[in-house]
Amino acid sequence: MSVDEIQVGLLGCGTVGSGVYKVLHKNEESITNKAGAKLSVKQVLVKDKDEELAVDVPDEELTEDFTDILNDDEIEIVVELIGGVNPAREFVLQSLKNGKSVITANKELIAKHGEEILLTAEENNVDFYFEASVGGGIPIIKPLKSSLAGNKITKILGIVNGTTNYILTKMDEEGAEFDSVLKQAQELGYAEADPTSDIEGCDAAYKLAILSSIGFESRIDIDKVYVEGITGITKEDISYAREFDYKIKLLAIGKEEEDGVEVRVHPTLIPEDHPLANVNDVFNAIFIEGDAIGETMFYGPGAGQMPTGSAVVGDIIEVARNIKLGAQGRLPCTCFENKKVKEPSEVETRYYIRLEVLDEPGVLGQITNLLGEYNVSMESVMQKGRSDESVPLVLITHKVKEGDINTALEEISKLDPVKEVANLIRVEE
Amino acid sequence: MSVDEIQVGLLGCGTVGSGVYKVLHKNEESITNKAGAKLSVKQVLVKDKDEELAVDVPDEELTEDFTDILNDDEIEIVVELIGGVNPAREFVLQSLKNGKSVITANKELIAKHGEEILLTAEENNVDFYFEASVGGGIPIIKPLKSSLAGNKITKILGIVNGTTNYILTKMDEEGAEFDSVLKQAQELGYAEADPTSDIEGCDAAYKLAILSSIGFESRIDIDKVYVEGITGITKEDISYAREFDYKIKLLAIGKEEEDGVEVRVHPTLIPEDHPLANVNDVFNAIFIEGDAIGETMFYGPGAGQMPTGSAVVGDIIEVARNIKLGAQGRLPCTCFENKKVKEPSEVETRYYIRLEVLDEPGVLGQITNLLGEYNVSMESVMQKGRSDESVPLVLITHKVKEGDINTALEEISKLDPVKEVANLIRVEE
Fold it and tell me: A single Gene Ontology molecular function, please (chains A, B) (predicted)?
């Protein structure tokens, strides 16, 4: 085989796979120039050759048998776009062991088996690239590993799930409730029929585990990521947050502090003038703080056929450049350390607390006194309306340990005038 | 010399040079891990060894003679941070010819002599990297050349000059005039004693020439970039723009359309909900549109010791990775084509026009009729106040060729009730 042509095998030809196929063909000439070699898709693995694809693939390029790709020595790059752990993990590991470089968009696979896969790639002197696994088309993995490599990364704040960002944006814009916006999102194709992984924060947690492992140079076990979804957010919370000049976003938060690393995904109040506060609809953005660069943010489409295809093709070009020069393994795993991940109870943050209380004199005093006993001090308080029944009392605290706030709220819920602790949402500055 | 240590020579130790020195030392362990080799500064070229530097450099690392670095075979990477064309160009070319890879933050040098330098690097099989030349610490050059390499880039909109962005932000926030804000910026160190290159748009033009050459894969001659600074922007323009829901920013605009490439730097009205509209103070951002990714934006500090140091060190690490693997030349010049750059008169855009007119019946009719004769149609019109003398009349047009608008305005200026064509600013969607 000539060095001037590099053969690619695609595993899967769904949304992203067809995007990759389209991008490679549409911009073929320019891509060949940049890669220094023609990148040709030789085989595409599909479940059923007779099923219609979102892109025209000639019959002779289709196969239903993975070993057709695995055993084809001309194929030097395998692109895994099946998703999920099985059989993706096996296909990836076997490809690497057969001397093929692998590119994937599979965040679950990397978050759960990244170490094993990266080690296997290293042992076999091939590349494993995964730009598309976080932030769809947004360049973030390679910038972290190269342009920002001189920094000690101290903070990562990401809006990394388009479905939940769409839902929260619409709840804000339309004053609508979660359920109705979710339904609307499903109709528009922005949410899956089973939206659990998105709305419960799992998708964002996979992405945070990947970003944090690279940013903090220490493998972050997916089980160590605290996860809370957005199903408990009401239109009232969004509207009260706005009165305090905050937006509510599902944030993936990674921080390195002196006593360890924090990794958590949860709905978060973020100041309206923060660059992330204006990231709306299905857009994603990743805000990075480093000791040299200060603050930087990467913004763009977090999903979709062509944006994700763009990220995968960027990886294919990078790997092709390495193959041309025999420089595979150029960007290896960067988890050099083994840092402590804090328990949720050790994390210190600010909180938004929404209570339902009886509209009686002295209630606020009772509550703030009790909070004070647990070292919780107030930044702002707002009582909404007057009523013979209960009224909402909204508090924003200064920084406090999660353990302390939970104990304090347990006590508060026992106070007579307190009808309900209606919501507790973290606040980021 | 062991492969596990790579020697670096720094040319210049001013703001950026001392930043590079600091970053390399501060994060030495992590940088060594990532580069796969210890990166040691062996020699620093300064004008005068006795002058105090912003960072502690041991005497034995200082030299006043460039040939000490040029002829030191152990030095494999030269970092040029002198700025300007002479002697930077000679130093860079000689270093490349002596087999050293070169990194620079020098936008003027690249914009004016990029082709010669990149060819020399290629002929000598070494690297020439320049991430810090655009957007300070913001990763943008490498993302364009790698993560986004699968795209045909169609549009580049950049806020790439911190000084002018600071001035326009303050004029907007404080309702202040240009001159007083410029003075304030100079006192704060955000503007130079001689601010010409910033406020007249030259600095932004260099950066646009670099971005466009990479984005459109065709060398953009700096002389082909249309440049207009911000000195003609008044607080009235900013306030009227706001009434139409626009902000005024100094934008570096590159577009590829069917009939050629447009490259222009000028004050621009941009809709308030555009991601660039909220990039304030000295921050920079580059908004990119590609056929696969759609829209993406890179935001961060556009200047400063540590952010620019961060970008340079990112390049040093990348080049070190190439040296370790013998993969120099991995990211060569990507100007594969020779595209036509449009003349300013061929460019079609929308315009904001501010006139001073007599407050008489029929004036608006006269003006819009005349504009209509030159194919200029109106999108919005606003007349401010009433007066016996002249009043401002502000128009926003639909798309029109620059040639047509200029002829139309010449005719309009001759109308009796028109006292002055006070300003003409382009509008971007």
Answer: homoserine dehydrogenase activity
Dmax over Cα atoms in chain A, in whole Å?
Answer: 84
- Say if residue B416's pLDDT is above 90: yes
Q: Report the first-to-last Cα separation within chain B, whole angstroms.
A: 56
Q: For position A361, what pLDDT does the model report?
A: 86
**A141-301 sits in which CATH class?**
alpha beta
| Strand, coil or helix: A214 | helix
pLDDT at A277 over 50: yes
Which of residues 139 through 158 in chain B touch A, CB cutoff 8 A? Answer: 139, 142-143, 145-152
Q: Which fold has domain B347-427?
A: Alpha-Beta Plaits (3.30.70)
Q: Where are the domains of chain B?
A: 5-136+305-325, 141-301, 347-427
The angle subtended at Cα A180 by Cα A175 and Cα A184, nearest 5°, is 105
Please give the ipTM for the structure prediction: 0.96
- Dump pLDDT digits (tens) for B314-338: 999 999 999 999 999 999 999 999 9
CB contact under 8 A, A314 and B147: yes
CATH of span B5-136+305-325: 3.40.50.720
Contacts of B224 (CB under 8 A, 6+ apart): B263, B341
pLDDT number for residue B371: 93
Q: How confident is the model over A121-126, as a mean pLDDT?
A: 98
CATH 3.30.70.260 fits A345-427, yes or no: yes
Q: How confident is the model at residue B1 (pLDDT cuts 50, 70, 90)?
A: very low
User: Helices B162-174 & B178-188, crossing angle to 10 degrees?
Assistant: 120
Alpha helices (H) along A104-234: 107-123, 141-145, 162-174, 178-187, 196-199, 202-215
Asked about B207 being catalytic, the answer comes back as: yes
CA distance B290 to B295: 7
- Asked whether the beta carbons of residue B306 and residue A295 sit closer than 8 angstroms, the reply is no
